[in-house]
Design a protein that fits this description.
Structural class: alpha/beta
CATH architecture of the domain at 2-90 and 156-230: 3-Layer(aba) Sandwich
Distance between the termini: 66 Å
Helix content: 25-40%
Largest sheet: 6 strands, mixed
Bound molecules: adenosine-5'-triphosphate
Shape: globular
CATH superfamily of the domain at 2-90 and 156-230: P-loop containing nucleotide triphosphate hydrolases
CATH topology of the domain at 2-90 and 156-230: Rossmann fold
Number of helices: 8
Number of strands: 10
CATH class of the domain at 2-90 and 156-230: Alpha Beta
Strand order of the largest sheet: 6-7-8-3-9-10
Length: 248
């Protein structure tokens, strides 16, 4: 579903490359966590998949399409295949929950009768049917993120990218949101989630891709946030040797 071959990215005004020779494949229906310290290149990688940025070198394939070769007029079609969710929700403040979700379908020209039938389904999926007429500022952060997920999912994208979707949420709400992303994943969507949330990654035990200074330094099935989380408890500590003359 996603293929990155020797992908590097240097921003015109960047003092160092944002991505360095990244090669990875993400298959249909996978759920992948993208981890790494701030500035390691996670957002840049997601932006390449959306063709919001172009790789400086290397190849990026999304659903079989080489994104560098997609003409500008083909980019909206690419973005129909790839839904996104962000840390700051990005809902339209002056539209209701229903209108926010419907908007995603209106802009791609879906007929009114389709919009009228699929928006309530999306609201049901995220458990917000009874808040359909509220405005974003009348919702909690977790509820706003649910609306954002419904909006990203309503057009049935093949890939859902989530950039630090729990960054503004408390621990319990974060678990609800990752469970919702897992529901979307179980519906057949490939999910890539960039995150700093170690406890979620450690609880879910999915594939982990780790970036450091733009390089892919780990690709681990059923991984943890930190490779050391796994290694440390498994290495027995040497027992201090007690000199014979001190043994009673
Ligand atoms: N538009 C830009 N112009 C120049 N440099 C940029 C731009 N966007 C990102 N960078 C640089 O590219 C590198 C990677 O940034 P990126 O935002 O991809 O990291 P990140 O891992 O998503 O960080 P965070 O976890 O803080 O969101 C950083 O050094 C950053 O300063």
């Amino acid at each position: 579903m996603i293929v990155l071959s020797s992908v590097s990215k240097r921003y015109p005004n960047g003092d160092r490359p944002a991505l360095v020779d990244v090669t990875a494949e993400i298959g249909v229906g996978e759920f992948v966590f993208l981890v790494g310290p701030s500035g390691s290149g996670k957002t840049t990688l997601l932006r390449l998949l959306l063709r919001e940025e172009r790789a400086t070198s290397g190849r990026v394939l999304v659903a079989g399409r080489d994104v560098a070769r997609i003409p500008d007029r083909g980019v909206p079609q690419l973005r129909r295949l790839v839904g996104c969710v962000f840390q700051d929700f990005r809902l339209l403040p002056n539209r209701t929950v229903t209108a926010n979700i419907a908007f995603a379908l209106d802009v791609v020209g879906r007929p009114r009768h389709v919009v009228r039938s699929v928006v309530p389904e999306a609201l049901d999926l995220v458990g917000l049917a009874e808040k359909a007429d509220r405005y974003p500022d009348e919702l909690s952060g977790g509820e706003q993120q649910r609306v954002a997920i419904a909006r990203a999912f309503v057009g049935r994208p093949r890939i859902l990218l989530a950039d630090e979707p729990t960054g503004n949420l408390d621990p319990n709400t974060s678990i609800e949101i990752v469970n919702l992303l897992d529901t979307v994943h179980q519906a057949g969507t490939t999910v890539v989630m960039a995150t700093h949330n170690a406890s979620l990654v450690n609880a879910m035990r999915r594939r982990v891709l780790e970036l450091s200074d733009g390089a892919l330094i780990r690709d681990e099935a059923r991984g943890r946030y930190n490779q050391d989380d796994l290694a440390v408890p498994m290495i027995p500590r040497p027992r201090p040797r007690v000199p014979a003359d001190r043994v009673r």
